[in-house]
Amino acid sequence: MKSYLTTLIAAFALLLLASVAFSFAETDSAEVDLSSAEAAAEETPFDKMMQVLTHKRCVNCHPSDDYPRQGEDSHVHNFGVERGPDNHGVAALRCESCHQAENNHLSGVPGAPEWSLAPKSMAWQGLSRVEIAKSMLNPENNGGRTLEETVHHLTEHELVLWAWEPGVDANGNPREKPPVSKEEYIKAVKEWAESGAVIPES
Ligand code: HEC
Ligand code: HEC
After folding, report:
1. Residue 18 binned pLDDT confidence (cut-offs 50, 70, 90)
2. In angstroms, how far is CA 152 from the centroid of its own chain?
3. pLDDT at 15
4. Residue 55: which of 140, 195, 182 has the closest Cα?
5. What sign does the dihedral 159-49-142-193 (CA atoms) show?
6. How crowded is residue 100: how many other Cβ atoms within 10 Å of its Cβ?
7. Going by CA atoms, what residue is nearest to atom 27 of ligand 1?
8. Whose CA is nearest to atom 14 of ligand 2?
9. Cα 142 to Cα 136, 137, 175, 194, distances in angstroms
10. Cβ(69)–Cβ(77) under 8 Å?
11. pLDDT of res. 39
12. What tens digit of pLDDT does each residue of 28-80 get?
């Protein structure tokens, strides 16, 4: 009888232990799930800003060679358009002979004031987001801008803001906009700069 009781108690204790262990395991995995979901949802201002800067609407005009890119597949610009000595093209193929101050919805030629290619020192094509951010903050590459001037350019320049009014292409198809809204992007740029313009490691 005594041994039966001991066995029963032992069995109970085991059961209790197992259920405690199980519930611990459960909370642990639940916490892990929650925090990874939170991490995914919690994009930093830098994440948001760089989703825009790495988008084709920007990079098509910031190539690493002498040819502007076009379209969602960033193909080399039609008609043999080239950078030229002042980033505005060569001879008869000057940017401004086709690109006006506004989008042309009939011909599909995009437009904004002073349409031209970003100088080679500001080439972003093929760079990682960290490399782009470093180049953008480096006065040797960025046209001698201070952080304040860079923020001003990023949040107010017409060629930048064009990305959210990209118009239609030559086939009448709307060009894709950056994945972050203009308002959210501007807020992200300012938050990132105000908190020290830190560039993460990756
Ligand atoms: C039509 C071509 C064009 C488009 C589109 C364009 N840029 Fe530029 N970008 C330029 C030119 C030209 C300059 C040089 C302007 C200057 O130095 O005054 C420049 C310079 C810059 C600079 C300052 C230089 C640097 O490296 O810090 C930043 C920042 C920049 N662009 C960001 C963007 C972003 C962000 C987008 C997209 C949302 C964009 N650009 C889209 C042509 C373009
Ligand atoms: C002969 C006319 C012509 C000239 C010159 C020209 N372009 Fe274009 N460009 C166009 C047309 C047309 C499109 C629209 C093509 C399409 O998207 O289907 C275009 C599209 C673009 C785009 C694509 C935007 C995007 O994100 O899809 C960029 C960037 C561009 N041009 C830059 C330039 C630059 C910089 C110059 C001067 C160095 C220049 N272009 C000179 C006619 C021209």
Report:
1. very low
2. 18
3. 46
4. 182
5. positive
6. 15
7. 136
8. 109
9. 5, 7, 27, 19
10. yes
11. 56
12. 444 445 555 555 568 999 999 999 999 999 999 999 999 999 999 999 999 99
Enter the tokens of residue 30.
């639940």
> What separation in Å is there between the alpha carbon of 9 and the centre of ligand 2?
82
Region of poorest pLDDT, from 8-12, 89-93, 100-104, 157-161: 8-12
User: For ligand 2, is residue 48 a contact (CB within 6 Å)?
Assistant: no
Report the alpha-carbon distance of residue 131 to residue 120 in Å, rounded.
Answer: 15
- Please give the mean pLDDT across all residues of the chain: 88
Residue that the structure tokens 């920007």 belong to: 58
Lookup: tokens for 74: 């960033």
135: alpha, beta or left? (left if phi > 0; alpha if psi -120 to 50)? alpha
- Give the burial string for 139-174 (b: 16+ CB within 10 Å, else e): eebbeebeeeebbebbbeeeebebbeebbbeeeeee
CA–CA gap between residue 145 and residue 163 (Å, rounded)? 22
Q: What six digits make up the tokens of 16?
A: 């209790």
Q: What is the residue type of 8? A: L
Give the Cα separation of 78 and 119 in Å (integer).
Answer: 20
Output the CA 99–ligand 2 centroid distance in Å. Answer: 7
